[in-house]
Fold:
Amino acid sequence: MRKVQKVEVWNDFVIGGEQMTLIGGPCAIESREMCFEVAETVLEICNSLGIQYVFKGSFDKANRSYVHAGRGVGMEKGLEILAEVREKLHIPVTTDVHESWQCAPTAEAVDILQIPAYLCRQTDLIIASAKTGKAVNIKKGQFMAPWNMKNVVLKMKECGNEKILLCERGTTFGYNRLVVDMMSLTEMRKLGYPVILDATHSVQQPGSNEEFTAGNRDFAPYLMNAGLAIGIDGIFAEIHPDPDHAVSDGPSQIKLSNIKGILERAVQYDRLTRKISEVKGE
Structure:
């Protein structure tokens, strides 16, 4: 398991160290109550399994297929909720940013800024995120090869910020399909920074429905296990109490009541991979 630069995101909370990290929560922030339901439940599970947990929720889903699709509670209310989750549960939190001007105010409420895959080549957005000094989780574009992320990393480094996380979320495979090339995980790790596998966006079927993106959440646990068996630093997963009625990405989100069993299995793959790497001296 190739060594990578450790990224500190919250006090002594380090990604790229000796523990598996889960970045998880609802696709869109729908309410304070739902966010706390997910965060409290998943935190308890992660604590019992020795998994580090970062809560994720998007205040605005700006890249929707359908003009009337739900987008969340908005920036002001969303950041208030995220800041409250961080303060009351004492865990790091993250959310997407879509425009450069959003970066500075968002950084006041969260610990990791997330760059959506469609926007990973937007230079001004990357620079604005880097200048906050916060960790930045950059999703590899569905249209990009893993080694092309080298230039994205360079943009961050040019701003003096090496708190870089690289995230795989599938590659366009013909129309309305994504595929995860497991070799991309090792390729991106060669860049020297922690790699996260987005197991739920990777099972999307983009544009396959007239009004929303379809997907198959049943495949997400298999991707998690495969990525952890290869040797990565963490998993990204969208988790919802009732995904069939979610505002966004319902078909791809994992049901909250199922996440415990999924993580129990996933952490076993992670521990086995780390143990093998230790024996080999990697």
